[in-house]
Amino acid sequence: MKVTTRALKLAAAGLGAAALLAAAGCTGEDASPKAELEQALAQLSAAKSYAFQSTATFKELQLPKPAADEAEKTEGQPDLSALMAELTKGMTIQMDGIYQREPMRTDANVKLTLPSAPMELTLPMIMTGDKVYLQVPDLIPTELAGKYVVIDSKKLAQEKGEPMQQLDPSVQQRLLLEAGAAFMKPFEEKTYFKSLKPDEANLPQGVEADSIVQFQADGAAGDQAMALVAEQALPAVLDVVLANEAYLQALGLDKAEAEASRKELADPNSELSKQLREQLKLEQVKLIGAIKDGKLAYQSMDLNAAYTDPQGADSFKAVLSGTTTYSKLDEPAAFTQEIPADAQPIGTLAEALGAAAPPAR
Questions:
Q1: What residues pair up with 336 in beta bridges, in sequence order?
Q2: Is the dihedral angle over the CA atoms 126, 127, 129, 131 positive or is it negative?
Q3: CA-CA distance, 44 to 324, in Å (whole number)?
Q4: Is the pLDDT of residue 126 over 90?
Q5: pTM (two decimals)
Q6: What is the end-to-end Cα distance of the chain in Å, rounded?
Q7: Residue 203 near residue 220 (C-beta atoms within 8 A)
Q8: For residue 229, pLDDT beyond 70
């Protein structure tokens, strides 16, 4: 795989790990935000159940161009990447749901709003250890509208002759805990972390916190932060990922590719390390986390970051803000519906949509 694509993947991994810092908090003047983060995430990861509410708003989102975009584009055809960037401007994703560790289950309502379309789509879903049930929106012209379809990961793995990837949110949580702790180690607390008072954090109504911490890197600190990311933080994250096959699967990373990237990042003069330092820019990363009774209660993030590929294909930019509130930790999960026994295979929906599509001219 070419170096620019690997740099893009690692850049995305770095930004994802940076988001974990939103959970940081401290319980006293001498407490370490890093230590408190580990404790809060550990509490969340070990929770038997919890409820959550999340909102993410994308002020700007420019995604890398598909591999075939440039090759197949002919004169007069629209730039799909530019069209997608315009459609997603102002996009909001809201999610509320309930998570239960044993037996594994997550129920959620996902609401997607596209102001530029305009369009509003609500997608109820149920996720177990090996299946995802999706309710087909009413706006889709098919007799399946309002009914559930199911994605069976076990069946798909058998058909492909590959090991099944467990749909287990606890794997991601453990990954976040370990990778987040590794990612934070090089960041010096006095420079990047700041304790906040409740009135400074702009907490939502009803959210109480014993401690609040802000992590922020922007301006000149952004360049310094990217040097830390490329030379220390990402290698540490890759060490965590390479030590656990489940983490590699969760991130969709090839082990040989990850090992090669880890080796190159160990050399600050390598092409990969130079690309990350020079081409990944953090205009702003601002994260606030609130902890109540040692548990993560709320987190918010403001992100303005861009990766510039000189060739153009792998460039991306993300300007977004998001919040998540957690509640009812370890209380009995109050699911409101049964797992649908009459759900149709996802292929049935594809067939129905194909039959409903107008004939090609």
A1: none
A2: positive
A3: 13
A4: yes
A5: 0.75
A6: 38
A7: no
A8: yes
pLDDT confidence tier of residue 332, bands split at 50, 70 and 90: very high
* Residue 255 in tokens: 């082990």
- Residue 16 and residue 283 in contact, taking contact as beta carbons nearer than 8 Å: no
Averaged pLDDT for residues 168-172: 62
What type of residue sits at position 152?
D
* Strands of the 316-327 sheet, one edge to the other: 193-195, 211-218, 280-292, 295-307, 316-327, 49-62, 91-100, 105-114, 119-128, 131-135, 148-152, 344-345
In the prediction, which pLDDT does 71 show?
Answer: 47
Structure tokens at 80: 């799909």
8 has pLDDT over 70: no
Distance CA 164, CA 159 (A): 10
Tokens coding 56: 């993410």
* CA-based R_g, the chain, Å: 22
Task: Tell me: pLDDT of 11 over 70.
Answer: no
Q: Which residues contact 22 (CB under 8 A, 6 or more apart)?
A: 215, 287, 288, 289, 299, 300, 301
Q: Cα separations (Å) of 309 from 2, 14, 253? A: 12, 17, 21
- Distance between CA atoms of residues 201 and 195, nearest Å: 10
The Cα 36–Cα 296 span in angstroms is: 10
Q: Yes or no: say if 120 and 113 are a contact pair by the CB < 8 Å rule.
A: yes
Mutual orientation of helices 234-242 and 169-184 as an angle, nearest 10°? 140
Contact between 303 and 57 under an 8 Å Cβ cutoff? The reply is: no
Q: Which residues of 191-202 are buried (b: 16+ CB within 10 A; e: fewer)?
A: ebbeebeeeebe
Residue-wise pLDDT for 67-124, tens only, equals 554 445 445 555 666 777 777 788 899 999 999 988 889 999 989 998 877 788 888 9
| Pairing mode, strands 131-135 and 148-152 | antiparallel
